[in-house]
Amino acid sequence: MPPELEQTLTLLSSHRSVLGYLLLSRGDHVSIIRHSGVIFEGEQGKKYASVIGKMVESVQAGLEEVSMSENDGDQIRFMRIRTKRHEIMISPDERYLLAVLHDPAS
Question: In this predicted model, which residue has the larger pLDDT, 34 or 73?
Answer without folding.
Answer: 34
